[in-house]
Every structure is written in C-alpha cells, then in structure tokens.
Design brief:
Helix content is about 40%, strand content about 20%. The longest helix is centred in the N-terminal third of the chain and has 17 residues, at about 30-45. It contains seven helices and nine strands. The protein has about 200 residues and is an alpha/beta fold. Helix 5 packs parallel to helix 6. The chain has one domain (about 5-200): Rossmann fold, CATH 3.40.50.300.
Length: about 200
C-alpha cells in the first residue's frame, strides 16, 4: 500500500508483532487495569511513528490518560502540538450521539491524514464505558462495520470494555465483532482468535 512493513508492535508483553488492520478488544476491571494496558500500547505506537488517538471515558478520562502517558517520560504536550498524539473524551469525539457511518469515515480520514503527514499508520484506542444499554445494539453494529472497514487499512485499534457489568452473552457479542480478544491470565498477554495468521506459533 505504501511500502511500509505490514506488521507493528502491539506493546503488550507476551504478544509478538501484529498486522495492520487489526481491530482488537479487551476487558478490564479497574482504572489501573485500563491504564496498564493502554499506556504501553500507545508508547509502542508513538515509538513506531504512528499517529495515536485515544478516546477516553470513565474511569480514565482525558486528563488522567495524559498524566499516565506523561509518567512514562513522554513529552505529551509536544506530541499533542505536533499532532502525533490526540487524547479526547468520548463526548468531545462522538458528540451527543454516535452515527456509525460518519464515525467510521472520520477514522478513515484520520488514517489518510496520518499517512499524508508521514506517519506509518494510525493507532486507536477507545473506552466504551459510556455506551448505555439502550444504545448497545447500535454500538455493536458500529463495531461490526468498523471491523470490516479497518481490515485492509494501516490502522490498529484496541477497544476497551468493562468486564464487571457485562453478561456472558455481551462478552461473546463483543468478541464476534472484533478480529481478536486480548487476555492476560498470568504475567503475559495472549491473543484469542479464529484467524490462523494470529495464532501463536
């Protein structure tokens, strides 16, 4: 597509290089769990010269996310001024309601912009804690459409879901709408997927 390598660094211990086009999900229980996952994920992206966009929600809002990244030694204000890092709360990014088609087109435009500006790809994470039960079906449709739209692009995405309130049926529904699910049963992360190219080996 543009001569760059097809693989990038996930940033999470236990997971090797991952391909662009991957639309991942994980489940977290606490604010600390969330930060421990997303901070190294974004550090890896910034080190790989990817444009990084972090869409936040409670329990880790935009200000707290900035503080977490700053704690790694990154110059977050400088990266924000340059445009390599954008951190926004969900209400600032999506507005009052989510239009799936517009949201996906915006992500694809962000990818085009990143490549035009010399980045090797676009790295996204979004915390879905803001999704209300009445909006669940529509959000699952958005996730399905995003999974299809991102598959051939220089985009990697990690969607965060709170584990405590989710019924088993919801967990399965989320997993079906993503390329893979990331789990951390011990000290290292693992990928769970039906895709043979992502199986450990």
């Amino acid at each position: 597509m543009n001569g760059h390598a097809h693989l990038t660094d996930c940033g999470l211990a236990g997971i090797k290089a991952i391909p662009y086009g991957l639309h991942m999900c994980h489940f977290y229980e606490t604010r600390e769990d969330l930060a421990a996952t997303l901070v190294p994920y974004f550090v890896a992206g910034l080190q790989k010269n990817e444009r990084c966009i972090w869409i936040t929600a409670n329990p880790l809002d935009a200000r707290a996310a900035e503080a977490q990244l700053t704690g790694t030694g990154l110059n977050v204000p400088a990266m924000a001024r340059k445009g390599s890092l954008l951190i926004r709360d969900h209400s600032d990014w999506y507005g009052e309601s989510l239009d799936a088609g517009q949201a996906i087109e915006r992500w694809l435009e962000e990818e085009r912009r990143a490549l035009d500006e010399g980045y090797v790809g676009l790295r996204i994470a979004g915390n879905t804690a803001f999704v209300q039960p009445a909006d669940w079906a529509a959000f699952m449709d958005y996730e399905q459409r995003a999974d299809q739209a991102f598959a051939s692009r220089r985009i990697v995405t990690l969607c965060s879901y709170r584990s405590n309130p989710r019924a088993a049926t919801d967990v399965l529904e989320v997993a079906r709408r993503h390329s893979c699910t990331l789990e951390r049963p011990d000290d290292g992360w693992q990928i769970h997927t039906a895709r043979p190219d992502l199986q450990p080996g």
